[in-house]
Specification:
Layout (H helix, E strand, L loop, with lengths): L2 H4 L13 H13 L2 H27 L6 H5 L3 H22 L2 H4 L7 H33 L9 H26 L2 H22 L4 H4 L3 H7 L7 H25 L3
Helix pairs in contact: 2-5, 2-7, 3-7, 5-7, 5-8, 5-9, 7-8, 8-9, 8-11, 8-12
């Protein structure tokens, strides 16, 4: 056996750097192409269908006009709880299954995979939100019975998509910092359903700065809309800091 045969091959020699688009496609497949994730998406789609149809039936029985805006905007709690779940699934899939040991040696840096996870979760959450829009449009066209069924649709599309992305990024940020699926889901549910209420009760003057839903409140507008400083404080506390912690852990951890 010659000496050249015994020389170890240099790492990354003749290997092409994986492009960001391919990383995003891989993360989308890792997030959606498993039995458990497909079951979760199917359950979320069924819940959205039940809520939209149920709200339309109740509105019809009460004589209230059924419009696209009322249907799409009627499932705010669903968006608040479902979209962060998608973000958590996307960020913790590798740490839960310990597959980072497989992927990291194949990449020349970890930052690309980290941000690919963020974008993949946002794209799948947006797909689910567009499914809600499609359901609302079909039901409004069937039961609305007039051109007024789609009044305010443009504003509702913008508000719904922005709220969807904000809720998803909340789950992404918390999961990036905690890195454990069950603990991240528990944290998001407790903060969303209990924490915001406690902040409003105990610190009413500072709730705009500390609440997770301040940015969503700014989207809705109105006389009680939060100030720009309150929005910046909330986004920094619940989005930027956890996301920065998660990015730092990803760069510095063993795997």
């Amino acid at each position: 056996m010659s000496q050249s045969t015994l020389q170890p091959a240099p790492l990354h020699q003749n290997t092409r750097q994986v492009g960001f688009t391919r990383l995003v496609a891989v993360e989308i497949r890792k997030l959606a192409d498993t039995r458990s994730s497909l079951a979760i998406f199917a359950v979320l789609a069924f819940i959205a269908l039940a809520l939209v149809v149920g709200f339309a039936v109740i509105s019809t029985n009460q004589g209230t006009p059924v419009t696209f805006a009322s249907l799409a905007g009627s499932i705010g709690l669903f968006t608040t709880l479902a979209m962060p779940l998608i973000g958590i699934m996307g960020m913790t899939s590798d740490t839960a299954h310990r597959t980072t040991l497989v992927y990291y040696p194949l990449l020349r840096g970890r930052a690309g995979q980290f941000w690919a996870k963020v974008l993949a979760a946002a794209l799948l959450a947006a797909a689910l939100q567009f499914f809600v829009f499609l359901l609302s449009a079909v039901v409004a066209a069937a039961l609305g019975g007039g051109a007024g069924a789609f009044d305010g649709a443009g504003q509702e599309l913008w508000d719904g998509l922005a709220s969807c992305l904000l809720s998803t990024m909340f789950g992404v940020a918390i999961a990036a910092a905690i890195r454990r699926t069950a603990l991240a889901i528990t944290t998001v549910i407790l903060v969303s359903l209990v924490g915001n209420g406690l902040i409003l009760s105990l610190l009413p003057d500072a709730s705009g700065y500390l609440s997770t839903i301040t940015a969503v409140g700014a989207l809705l507008g109105g006389p009680d809309a939060p100030t720009a400083l309150e929005v910046a404080s909330s986004l920094t506390l619940w989005y930027l800091i956890p996301l920065g912690i998660g990015w730092w852990i990803t760069e510095k951890s063993e795997a």
